[in-house]
């Protein structure tokens, strides 16, 4: 992810930072969803019931 925060007005820099934060949040959410799916193992559930 390439950024150039040194150029632009304060508003433009803030928008760039918020865009980066949104992208990071999306990646974290995506990875958490993968962990939840991996945690719901059919083998594990079959041992409990």
How would the blueprint of this fold be written?
Elements: H1 10-39, H2 42-48
Description:
The chain is mainly α. The chain has one domain (10-48). The chain is 76% helix and 0% strand. It is built from 2 helices and no strands. It has helices spanning 10-39, 42-48. The mean pLDDT is 75.
Entry keywords:
2 helices, 49 residues, single chain, 0% strand, mainly alpha
How far the N terminus sits from the C terminus, by CA atoms, comes to 46 Å
Mean pLDDT equals 75
Coarse structural class = mainly alpha
Number of helices: 2
Helix content: over 70%
Categorize the overall geometry: rod-shaped
Radius of gyration: 19 Å
Q: How many strands?
A: 0
The gist of it:
The protein has helices at 10-39, 42-48.
């Amino acid at each position: 992810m390439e950024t150039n925060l040194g150029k632009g007005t304060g508003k433009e820099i803030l928008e760039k930072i918020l865009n980066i934060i949104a992208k990071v949040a999306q990646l974290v959410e995506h990875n958490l969803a993968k962990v939840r799916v991996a945690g719901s193992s059919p083998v594990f559930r079959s041992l409990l019931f």
